[in-house]
Write a structure and sequence with these properties.
6 strands; three-stranded antiparallel β-sheet; hpI Integrase, Chain A
C-alpha cells in the first residue's frame, strides 16, 4: 500500500520506492483518498524530474528556510536566519525561488545600499541569497542561473579609536547618563536599565580583549575564572581556544555581572539566551560620539593597534586575536613597521650623542 498510518499521528503517510530509492513523507491529511491523490502526483513529479528533466518548483519561503536550517549548528545561525527572513519578506510578492533572477538580486542589493547598510553587511546578505539558491539547486529544485553582484570591500586604512575617541564613546554609553526623552536613571524600567548596562559592559570587554562580537556574545560563566583573572575564550570561527587575562576594568565588569547572574551566559537577551548580534546600538553610539564609519569590529582593530603601538610584535598579536594564519594579522604590519622605524631613529640618535 502506498499510504499508511503511523502510531501517534492522525495523518496518512505516503511511502513507496522509485528507481531503488525510498520516498516517505506525511500527506498532512486524514483523508485517505486525498493522500492517495498526493501519492500519484508525487510519483508523476519524480518521473518528470528523472526521465524528462523537469525540476519541481520550490517556494521562496521554503527555499530560505531549508537553507537556514542547514546552518543551524553554526554560531552565526541566528544572523543567517535573520537575513533569510529579510529576503523572504523582500520577495513576498513572488512564489518560487526560480523567480529570483540576476535582475531581482541587483534590485535587492540596491535596496540594501539605499538603506545605508555597509558593503560588508550587503555582501553577507547576498551570501544568504546565493546560498539558498545553490542549496535548492543541490536538492534538485528548479532555480535560475543567477549572477551575483560583485561587492567591493574597502582595503584602505584601518579604523581604530584614539584614547579621546574611546572616552567620547564610553561617555555616550554610560548607563546612568541623562538622555533626552528618557526618565532619570532611577526611574527607568529595569529592562531598559539592563540594556544600557549591557551595551556599556559589552564595549568594555570588546575593547580590552580584542575578541570578536560572537565570541563574547556566546561566552559562558564556566569559561571565567575571577580568582586568577583568566578567560578561556572559544573561537568558533577558527575552531581554537585562547586563554586571555582580564584587564582591571574587565575584571570589575565581570565581577559585578557575576553577582547578578542567573544563567550560563554572561551577556543575554531578555529571555536569558545568548545575546544576538545587533548592529544598531553600536552604530547609534558611534554616531552620537561623532565617530562615523565605525562598528563593533572597530573595537577589535583598536585593541590590536594599541598592542602593536606599545611594543608587541605581529606574532604576539596573532595569538591574542586568535588568528589562524599570520597573513590575517599582517594588516597591522604598517603599524609595526612604524614602531620599528621609531626605534631605529632612537638608536641612531643615541649613537650620534655618544660620538660627541
Amino acid at each position: 500500500m502506498a499510504v499508511n498510518k503511523r502510531t501517534g499521528s492522525p495523518f496518512w503517510y505516503i511511502q513507496f520506492q522509485y528507481n531503488g530509492q525510498n520516498y516517505i513523507k506525511s500527506s498532512k491529511t486524514t483523508d485517505k483518498k486525498l493522500a492517495l491523490k498526493q501519492e500519484v502526483q508525487w510519483r508523476s513529479q519524480l518521473i518528470e524530474q528523472q526521465q524528462l528533466g523537469y525540476k519541481q518548483a520550490l517556494s521562496i519561503k521554503e527555499a530560505f528556510q531549508l537553507y537556514a536550517n542547514s546552518k543551524n549548528e553554526l554560531i552565526s545561525y541566528r544572523n543567517i536566519n535573520l537575513w533569510c527572513q529579510r529576503a523572504i519578506n523582500h520577495w513576498r510578492d513572488k512564489n518560487f525561488i526560480h523567480e529570483v533572477t540576476s535582475a531581482e538580486v541587483e534590485r535587492y542589493r540596491n535596496k540594501l545600499s539605499t538603506a545605508s547598510y555597509s558593503n560588508q553587511t550587503i555582501k553577507h546578505a547576498l551570501n544568504q541569497v546565493s546560498g539558498a539558491i545553490q542549496y535548492a539547486k543541490r536538492m534538485g529544485y528548479q532555480v535560475s542561473e543567477v549572477q551575483m553582484p560583485t561587492i567591493r570591500l574597502s582595503k584602505g586604512r584601518l579604523t581604530y579609536l584614539t584614547a579621546e575617541d574611546e572616552q567620547r564613546l564610553l561617555a555616550e554609553l554610560e548607563p546612568t547618563r541623562s538622555v533626552k526623552g528618557l526618565a532619570p536613571y532611577d526611574q527607568r524600567l529595569p529592562e531598559l536599565q539592563r540594556e544600557m548596562h549591557d551595551i556599556y559592559d559589552f564595549v568594555i570587554v570588546l575593547l580590552d580583549t580584542g575578541a570578536r562580537h560572537t565570541e563574547i556574545s556566546s561566552m559562558r560563566w564556566d569559561a571565567i575564572n575571577l580568582d586568577d583573572g583568566t578567560i578561556k575564550l572559544w573561537r568558533p570561527k577558527v575552531q581554537n581556544q585562547s586563554v586571555l587575562f582580564m584587564s582591571h576594568r574587565v575584571h570589575a565588569v565581570l565581577t559585578r555581572r557575576k553577582q547578578a547572574a542567573s544563567g550560563p551566559f554572561i551577556f543575554t537577551n531578555s529571555k536569558g539566551d545568548a545575546r544576538q548580534y545587533l548592529a544598531a546600538p553600536f552604530r547609534k553610539a558611534f554616531d552620537r560620539a561623532g565617530l562615523p564609519n565605525c562598528s563593533a569590529h572597530t573595537l577589535r582593530h583598536t585593541h590590536a593597534t594599541r598592542l602593536i603601538q606599545n611594543g608587541l610584535n605581529l606574532y604576539e598579536v596573532k595569538e591574542i586575536l586568535g588568528h589562524a594564519d599570520i597573513k590575517t594579522t599582517m594588516r597591522y604590519a604598517h603599524l609595526e613597521q612604524a614602531k620599528v622605524s621609531q626605534k631605529a631613529v632612537d638608536v641612531i640618535n643615541q649613537l650620534q650623542l655618544s660620538q660627541k
